Amino acid sequence: MLFFELIKALILGIVEGLTEFAPVSSTGHMILVDDMWLKSTEFLGSESAFTFKIVIQLGSVFAAAWIFRHKYLEMFHIGKYAPTHQAGLRSKPKRLKLTHILVGMIPAGVLGLLFDDLIEKYLFSLPTVLIGLFLGAVYMIIADRYSRNVRNTVSVDEISYFQAFVIGLSQAVAMWPGFSRSGSTISTGVLMKLDHKSASDFTFIMAVPVMLAASTLSIVKHYDYIDLSHIPFYIIGFLAAFVVGFISIKLFLKLIQNVKLIPFAIYRIVLVVVIAVVYYVIL
C-alpha cells in the first residue's frame, strides 16, 4: 500500500513540474489529477496534503532558479557573472537589474500579503478555477493576436521599468487560481511589446522570488501540519517536480518563440471542458 502511495506522490511531482511554469495552470491540473483521481488527502490528510503541494511547488521553483542562476548572479554582481564593460564605451550596455525584478514583484507582493487568507478561503473552488482557466485562455489568445503586428523587444535585458511594473500587475491578477501566473504575465509581456521568449524569460526570473516567498510563508503558516512520517512523500514529490520542471522549462523556452500562446490557450479550454464533464457529469 505504501508503495502505491509513493507512486502517487511521484505522479503529483511530475504533474507539478510539467505545469507550474507552462501557461496551462498547475492548479487546474492538480484538480484533475489529484482531487479527482489520486486524492492525496486520503493518505496524507487534508492539511498535510496542502503542505505537500507547497513543497513540490518549491521543486519547480528551484528548477527555474537553477536555469536562470546566471541572471541572478549577474544582478548581484557575483563572480564571473558580474557585468563587464569595455573600456572606451560611453554608456553601459543594457541589462536586467535587480530593481526590475523588485518593481515587478511589488503588486503581487502587496496584494498577496493583504488578501492571501481570503484567496485561500474563497477562491480555491472548482468553479472559480474553471473561470480562471477560461478567462486566462481568452487573454492569451488576445495577446497572440495583438503581437502579430507589433515589433517586439527581443532581449529580456532591454525591458523597461514600466514594462516590468505592468507585467507585475498581471502577476497579481494571476493570484486568482487557474488564471496561471505564467500565462497572464507572458501574455502581458507580449502586449507590452516584448517578444514571447523575452516575456517568458522575465516571467520565470520574476516568479522565482515571488513563489519562493509565497511558498515559504505558506509552509510557516501550516508548519504544525507537517508530519515526519510524510517526509518520504515530500522528498519524492519535490525531486520529481525539480527534475521534470527543469526539463519542461528548458523545452518550453525553446518552443515558445515558434508555437506562441494560442496552442496552450486551446489546451486550457479543452481542460475546462474535461474537468467540468468529469466533475459535474461523471462523478
Automatic annotation (TrEMBL):
What function does this protein fulfil? Catalyzes the dephosphorylation of undecaprenyl diphosphate (UPP). Confers resistance to bacitracin.
**What is the similarity comment for this entry?**
Belongs to the UppP family.
An example GO biological process term is: regulation of cell shape
Enzyme Commission number, as recorded: 3.6.1.27
- Membrane topology term: Multi-pass membrane protein
This chain belongs to which protein, by name?
A: Undecaprenyl-diphosphatase
Enzyme class, first EC level, given as a word? hydrolase
- Tell me which GO cellular component terms the UniProt record holds: plasma membrane
Read off the InterPro entries from this record: UppP (IPR003824)
| PANTHER family in the cross-refs | UNDECAPRENYL-DIPHOSPHATASE
> Native species of this protein?
Staphylococcus muscae
Recorded catalytic reaction(s): these are: di-trans,octa-cis-undecaprenyl diphosphate + H2O = di-trans,octa-cis-undecaprenyl phosphate + phosphate + H(+)
